[in-house]
Write a structure and sequence with these properties.
single chain, five-stranded mixed barrel, OB fold (Dihydrolipoamide Acetyltransferase, E2P), mainly beta, 98 residues
Length: 98
């Protein structure tokens, strides 16, 4: 019998790519993920959007960045996603609307 001494590698499943729509909070950003859903009766594809609260410990996300996120254990009441990487930086820093 041979034993494997290497630890199994974790693969990231269930990752999503979205755009940062808010970065006002410390260590947290809000990411909007767009998707299409087929209407059950008419068959037309409808555009939908889901928003996720994402853990960003280094505050590296800025408004308009395209990021990859993955699910994790619940960090707070609404935050159960974490940042994997910044796929594309925003072309120019966008300003917050108040």
């Amino acid at each position: 019998m041979t034993e494997q001494t290497s630890t199994p590698r974790r693969t990231l499943t269930g990752t999503k790519i979205g755009v940062v729509v808010s970065d006002k909070r410390d260590k947290t950003c809000t990411v909007a993920v767009d998707y299409q859903q087929k209407h059950p009766k008419y068959g037309k594809y409808l555009h939908r959007q889901a928003k996720f609260q994402v853990d960003d410990p280094e505050n590296q996300c800025v408004l308009g960045d395209r990021v990859e996120i993955t699910g994790c254990r619940p960090i707070s009441k609404t935050k159960s996603w974490r940042l994997v990487k910044v796929v594309e930086k925003a072309p120019a820093p966008l300003e917050h609307h108040e």
